[in-house]
């Protein structure tokens, strides 16, 4: 089979230098008069000194002071002049990513073919249940091989799916993870190849997962025994379900309905969204846990990181998946973004970095409920920068790069916040390894003295200086920042996003690459050389390397206006279903 091919990109034309300004003659300069020049020089020096001192003492205030003037400009943040936009391939960097994928895949294929997970340091695989696995890594990697044109590697992977993949496994699997990685991987492989093998396997898996939705509310339970087709509540978590997990199955199930004409998948997915829309509070910030029996939110933290992140991601993507006709999803998304800006978006007091905080529920001494703002942000939140920019341009339907006059309502606000968040996420890569930690904590004006004395001015990693680093300091090959860089580049053609992505890739190559094959996470991003963890997450090949490849590829490959990526980076086509009631 052939990989997805690129259009030949035209070379960037060289730009002429602007003509030099007319230079006054020596005689004209002499007539100007030195007293005026000295006065102007003194004023400029004085102003420069004042601004410098202001910046040193309170840079955040200075930035806030000039922001209103900046907003008067037609220049959008994160966008260079249109004549510098270039959407062709960067072949050297793109091919380096292909080599990295082959380094990862060939090691897995050698040591652990068919196993769910890979451990590159010990050269072995493992499965998610004692009864066996369901090929998480193989299926999660299929579309990356197709996109990269790795025909031989893909041929062997497809053969494994055809002859060895089975879901008749008497083991308990997470509904969310299995849907986004395995069902999503099968569906995207079909989208790219139209090979009916993948539809057969996808339907078989989905039918086993559907028992999870048999609750009074219609919200799916957390787990399923695939072999016995039995729903398994999460007893270790009071039978609750996470908001992100129940609201991040919709793209996959709706696309499967489109392919099979079986409405049961679509109806189950939409029922979940109906329950959430009815239950979501005002302002529409979703707590991270729900009760699947009652269909209601449970008092629990509000955050855009773990257990909350992809709920917001899929609000926008469900709207985009069906050609922007289901306005109910757009309304839910816009309402959520308004609430995020009002209640979660914060800035550091020193350098004015933008981040999203978390809200923690607490009981007062009088047993009243109150919410405490916590200045921490998961690496997972870094998806939001690109998502905001995608939403601001109505799914990439603006000019490339977008023009200021195309933005209406809150779109420019969302674009600016998205770009600022990407910058903050890149700032968290300013560690000794160049890798970003799992969790970043941000400085506030009211920090206790212990933090003020020891922490850097803007953000820090909790526990990174301890002999045994906290989990906050890990980097486990996560893709969220490069995902946002890919989207931002596609929307602007601005080379800064490619340069930032290349910096991240080089850090991964330097610190995570295992010489004998594969890649491993690090336990502490602020120690060089870092200690490696013996695990290569499946999203390394499914997401991180795929988004890097697409970042450096010609933009004709999988254009954003024709495809929507699920939360595991599996591309699905934009569909325009007929005969189904739109979610409005």
From TrEMBL:
Ca(2+) binds at residue 567. Residues 1-18 have a biased composition (Basic and acidic residues). Coiled coil: none annotated. It holds the Pfam family Glyco_hydro_47. It is an enzyme of class 3 (hydrolase). The keyword Nucleus does not apply. Residues 1-29 are annotated as: Disordered. It catalyses: N(4)-(alpha-D-Man-(1->2)-alpha-D-Man-(1->2)-alpha-D-Man-(1->3)-[alpha-D-Man-(1->2)-alpha-D-Man-(1->3)-[alpha-D-Man-(1->2)-alpha-D-Man-(1->6)]-alpha-D-Man-(1->6)]-beta-D-Man-(1->4)-beta-D-GlcNAc-(1->4)-beta-D-GlcNAc)-L-asparaginyl-[protein] (N-glucan mannose isomer 9A1,2,3B1,2,3) + 4 H2O = N(4)-(alpha-D-Man-(1->3)-[alpha-D-Man-(1->3)-[alpha-D-Man-(1->6)]-alpha-D-Man-(1->6)]-beta-D-Man-(1->4)-beta-D-GlcNAc-(1->4)-beta-D-GlcNAc)-L-asparaginyl-[protein] (N-glucan mannose isomer 5A1,2) + 4 beta-D-mannose; N(4)-(alpha-D-Man-(1->2)-alpha-D-Man-(1->2)-alpha-D-Man-(1->3)-[alpha-D-Man-(1->3)-[alpha-D-Man-(1->2)-alpha-D-Man-(1->6)]-alpha-D-Man-(1->6)]-beta-D-Man-(1->4)-beta-D-GlcNAc-(1->4)-beta-D-GlcNAc)-L-asparaginyl-[protein] (N-glucan mannose isomer 8A1,2,3B1,3) + 3 H2O = N(4)-(alpha-D-Man-(1->3)-[alpha-D-Man-(1->3)-[alpha-D-Man-(1->6)]-alpha-D-Man-(1->6)]-beta-D-Man-(1->4)-beta-D-GlcNAc-(1->4)-beta-D-GlcNAc)-L-asparaginyl-[protein] (N-glucan mannose isomer 5A1,2) + 3 beta-D-mannose. Its EC number is 3.2.1.-. Disulfide bonds join 382-425. One of its GO terms (biological process) is carbohydrate metabolic process. Its cofactor is Ca(2+). Keywords: Calcium, Disulfide bond, Glycosidase, Hydrolase, Membrane, Metal-binding, Transmembrane, Transmembrane helix. The active site is at 177 (proton donor), 309, 438 (proton donor), 480. The chain crosses the membrane at residues 39-55. It comes from the Eukaryota. InterPro entries: 6hp_glycosidase-like_sf, Glyco_hydro_47, Glycosyl_Hydrolase_47, Seven-hairpin_glycosidases. One of its GO terms (cellular component) is membrane. Pathway: Protein modification; protein glycosylation. One of its GO terms (molecular function) is mannosyl-oligosaccharide 1,2-alpha-mannosidase activity. Belongs to the glycosyl hydrolase 47 family. This is alpha-1,2-Mannosidase. It comes from Sistotremastrum suecicum HHB10207 ss-3.
